[in-house]
User: Fold this.
Amino acid sequence: MLHGIIRRLLSAIPTLLIGITLCFLIIHLAPGNPATRFLNPSQSAQTQEIIRERFGLNQSVPVQYGHWLERVLFHFDFGYSFYNGKSCVAVLISALKPTLILSFWALIFALFVGVSLGIFTATKADTHFDRIINSIMMVFISTPAFWLGLMFIGLFTIRLGWLPGSHLHSLYYDQLNSFGQLLDSVKHLILPVLTLGLPLAATLFKYIRTGMIDALQSDYILAARARGIRQSTILWKYSLKNSLLPVVSLLGVIIPALLSGAVIVEVVFALPGVGRAMVTAVFGRDYPILMAGATLAFITVIFFNMIADILNMILDPRIRNGSGGL
Amino acid sequence: MKIQRRSLIFQICLPYLIVSLPFSCQKNNNKQFEHSDLYPKNKQIQDGGTLVIGIRAEPESLNPLFALSQSARNIIGLVFSRLADINEDLKSFSPRLAKSWEISTDNPQITFHLRTDAHWQDGTPCTSKDVVFTYKMHINPAIAWDGVAFKQNISSVEAPNDSTVVFSFYQNSRSMLMDAVEGYILPVHILQNISPENLFTADFNRHPIGTGPFQFGNWVDMQTITLLKNNKFYGPGKSHLDRIIFQTVPDNFNLLNQLKAGEIDLVEGIYPKDFQSILQNWDQGQSDIRPISYLGRRYDFIGWNMIDPESYRIAVDTGTPPDAIKNDIEPNALFGRREIRAALTMALDREAIMNTVNFGMAVSLNGPVPPILPSYNESANVSWEYNPQKAKKILSEQGWTDSDGDNILDKNRVPFEFELLTESGNLRWEQVATIVQAQLVEIGIRATPRFLEPALLYGKLLPAKDFDAVVIGWSVGLTPDFSPLFHSATFFTPFHFTGYSSPEYDRLDDLSKTALSDDKAQEYYDKIAQLLSNDLPYTWLYYRMECSAVHSRFKDIIYDKRGIYINPEDWWIPQSERLFIDTVFQK
Assistant:
């Protein structure tokens, strides 16, 4: 298994390099120039050239790429934001915490709701309850995140006034005691977590429900029932384990998708996360931030795919024994 | 089959119920607000309270040398001071860091006498050394300060002593005082040790120290910037408010809802449609959010490309000195002739466009001089009436007729069609472009709106001049300066994207700059207005009103064409109207 992990790690390096190189080229070759933001009518040609020089935009794209790669590989320096002059690493580190908090709770919520409802409805397949839950989950799968977020704000913030619709905490957060701070943070997180977590929960629900129904109808479960094994053991030990396998593979895709879903949620709920930093960078043609964010995204995707593969290997003896996977 | 039908009903009805839920729960909003006096006469001003300002984007920098966005400039205006502030007439100035000044026109000089009680927020006295240092920063090419044009006529700045600064000028001009006081004064004791090349990334840009009525408190990334009352402020009165919090809310829907919910006290740049709703609620006593509107600093227009983009590209690519190749550039096949631009302008119902996209929050504009400036004279502009029939006649005289019966005019089998660019995401401009398309098709012209994201649009427009026509707008300064847009000397610079060239205009523009009396300058401005509104490099559409809203508990807010931050240190909140946010920070 260790050999497989090492092989996988080594194969990730060229994938990462090719990915970030393509990303660099796409960003830099796209029409439009970040220096345009600094133009003003009275600016001389010399000043414009100084601004281009400040950001290294006066060099050819391959030279810019070479400098960028050298700084990143040898100094872990992603440069400075064209927008505000802040170090890209500092921008991402500061933005990573809210994104991780949001994604973590959304994942926990999605796993809890998706798995528990999936199992429960599988045991009640084709009942009214099953159909109602199915329909509700279809809504969450098919509703775009930004719309869902606005709906929640419309209902819980504007109409009912129960929950705040933006930011990580209140303006007077520092004035609250520890319990007040905790409560304030929880209140601010509920709507973003629901917005990000519900579509994910619905996706997981679909997988678990289908997997469970298939498992419950399979021959080995029939045989287990015939042997008089208890229903709960059949459900939790035999059926669930098999239905979780595709979910584990799915997690490799879901976690990066969570981070990209956070982009919309962070903008709608004004959360200071990586997603919002990236959106701002895209509109401002802030190349260094974009590249730092893209590198982070590549690493996240590769890392979580690898984790999913390892988990699959642990859970599935067919993979572990070399008939597939790593 | 029965089960499937039931399932179908669930699949259709439940989602509908869930989706419509937020809209079916009507909030009981019959509360009536009694608006107290906004400018109380018999007032007992009480200090304290918090102002929360909603902004859409985080400022890029709080260093006056690098700030470009409006939100950054607003914050900087509260933290830093100039030597003098411009008055409402946009001609005279009030003392700020300079308590007085003398202007000498014989040997063009201005001598400023500085206040001796002004201190930086870290306690260091603000002296003439700071003023000299600031000037050096302003003109330093490595800084690339965006207001450097103001300093072009200044030959030197000297400090004979700590409280005196002498600005010397190359030549006498009406704008000497404005040129000298433009720009906020920076602290030499903090910035002198940072090389200009490294200043863009300096920590000072996010932790500024100024001399204004408010001092920097803290900056939480992408969330809030807090300013605190500056107890060392030198001004006639210290701020009444304890703090101002700028809260970033990128989503407009959320921003307005926070304003309505009372979580945010002040929002600028409200879209006119939303502003009308705020206005209506205020008038009916259903809200304590006070609408504020005033003539702002922006106008929108259609810019016509008067030169052929391809010949321009070829000419520029040759690399020969610009003036030598100017004659090689061919006029635009469509918009190169004034008659065509006039016909297009007459084919547009500009009043309808103005009212549709601005919901009444704009005034008509027919020429280059903005109505907020003292030099504005509407009668100087050539006014083009809406007359599609006359437009068609002019086009016909120019050879544009519908020879093939496809309802589109053509000339030599070339149809009259073009791309009308604008910025994607700018709802107002997108609407203008769509209405223009609909109005022009009535006279047989096919304009195809194309919405491009900003970097792409300005990339095509400004350096490359690669476009047919564009709907955009400019922000205007407090002095009329049209040279970068229309003077032949700036023909190859980015903002001169229409390719307009007129020796008469150049002459008038030069004379307006050197005129020493306001009357003489006005004469030239009137002639410029007449010439440009007749030549129509732009079809001016309207001049926008700024729409803002502020909670009515804030009293004595003065606002005019200079904006809403004229006297923030004088704003105050009566004790009886204070909210939780006004008292919570006192713990």
